[in-house]
Amino acid sequence: MSDMEIVFPGGKKVTALWHGFEIKTDQPAGGGGEASAPTPFDLFLASLGTCAGIFALGFIQSRGLSAEGFKITVSFEQDPATHLLAKTAMKITLPKDFPPKYKDAVIKAAEQCLVKRTMDNPPKFEITAE
Question: Does the reported pTM lie above 0.70?
């Protein structure tokens, strides 16, 4: 198992220490924070799009194609009762002159995202305290 350390620098700020990076989060001002960083849930949502993006980008680059104009737009729906994520939709904007024969393949590449695949097969959670 790998260990990520979570520290609390003050207020509503929570920071993850991982592989030499400080991944900072905060809460909005209305939630008692300073809105100085994304919320933890914002980072989770961003991880979905950036993960799909790196897999799709890898496909494009491996074919020697231009990635100019390539982007992914991620839309989310939350269940109003539970506030949990109910639906995620990703729209891939392909680069200009992208070969149509690769359209399905770039979608499949994005679907290989480890974050998505982990959500498809969620891990067991164990929380303890000392």
Answer: yes
What pLDDT is attached to residue 1?
Answer: 80
Contact criterion met (CB below 8 Å) for 51 and 76: no
pLDDT tens, 11-26?
Answer: 999 999 999 999 999 9
Q: What is the distance between the alpha carbons of residues 67 and 55, in angstroms, rounded to a whole number?
A: 13
| Residue 52 to residue 116: CA distance in whole angstroms | 8
Torsion of CA 46, 49, 55, 57, to 10 degrees: -100
For residues 20 and 123, what is the distance between their CA atoms, to the nearest angstrom?
25
Query: What is the CATH number for 53?
Result: 3.30.300.20
Provide the domain limits for residue 3.
1-37
Residue-level length of the chain:
130
**Contact of 25 with 43, CB cutoff 8 Å:** yes
Residues 18 and 4: beta-carbon distance below 8 Å: yes
